[in-house]
């Protein structure tokens, strides 16, 4: 879905012209004669299905087959340009219908104005069709939008009857506006009897959040009870694109590491989160884009980035305190019936060879600025193995409470990036670590590769 981004180079003017220019291929879709009456347009179909044509009168390919072929055609273009959809749509009215449906299957809007243009286009199609026909926004399976666009009056989720995946970026919100924005997007305005979101919506992605907290999770859980894949992230707000000052500033504008200031430890965090997510009885894959390392890690990193002596100092401290290290391991398990985070057994997955994280070996080559994930000092100071164990402990605790879960992922400065699926590049995807859950013989187990 991320790869078919032909909407990217498709600005508002394009949309405007599509909606208003009367001789466009789209507006003709529903006024053209049926394919049976247009012999001259049957050339292509004859080549594809010559046999059927000699035996039976109708020359139409089943729409599913045309649809299937069309998807191959449209997806074969890596730049996803609109040209292919357009030329395909000129063949006949059946093809135009397929093209239109394909065009609407995934839409990306940048502003409330653009959403309004799509909505107007939808209603102009509705007016040309029989009541109850699926048209326009009814075809949308994936909708990608910034939070401010979905606040407008034209945002009406019930029009998106087939919406499966909703992706919202909260980059324009912050501490002040996140909660009110969430309310406006997710709660129906005074019509409690109408279901606001379609039940087919099973995947929700929200990126660039200011904070992942209990009110946010409760809002999501009440608005999308049938969600299966939930992706929430804020750690990508740590900005390494400019200078150290900007990096430092961005680190104070997002709650990237809620421990210990918002939750004193992982038990507090997982208890609160699991309780809030309880209504999601079909949740299988959960991503929480926050760091489970202490908040201090980022603060210390900003302090030591320009002091090379710090590394030696840290080195000494780290090695002198090695004796009292907590249990570690890369497979954690506990009894299925266990409700508290005690009695965890730690073992080592011998086949997990890629456990070592990828932090920089040569400090001189590091980009300016860089996050703790590339920093040798942080790896030592932040005790990578302790953090990685903590990530598994948190995963195990959530897996124990939310029985439908199959994977849980977090943002991490110490990720090994080995089994990360590369088709989901949403949020802080480079710094993601995933725990896979196995439920067998009365025990719940987690590890960093599929079982
Ligand atoms: Zn192309
Ligand atoms: Zn800067
Ligand atoms: Zn550092």
Structure description:
The protein is 34% helix and 13% strand. The protein has 15 helices and 11 strands. Strand 3, helix 8 (178-186) and strand 4 form a beta-alpha-beta unit. The model is unreliable at 1-43 and 355-363 (pLDDT under 50). The protein is an alpha/beta fold and 451 residues long. The relative contact order is 0.08. The chain has a domain at 1-104. The protein has an 11-stranded mixed β-sheet. The structure holds zinc ion (3 copies). Residues 242-243, 245-246 line the site of one zinc ion (ZN). Residues 1-38, 345-365 are annotated as: Disordered. Residues 1-16 have a biased composition (Acidic residues). This is F-box domain-containing protein. Residues 19-34 have a biased composition (Polar residues).
Structural class: alpha/beta
Bound molecules: zinc ion
Share of helix among residues?
A: 25-40%
State mean pLDDT (0 to 100 scale).
78
Runs in which pLDDT lies below 50 for 5 or more consecutive residues are 1-43, 355-363
Helical stretch count?
15
The termini sit apart by 27 Å
- Strand coverage percent: 5-15%
* Major pleated sheet: 11 strands, mixed
Element-level helix/strand string: HHHHHHEHEEHEHEHHEHHEEHHEEE
* Tally of strands: 11
Query: What's the overall geometry?
Result: globular
Radius of gyration: 26 Å
> Strand order of the main beta sheet, please?
1-2-3-4-5-6-9-10-11-7-8
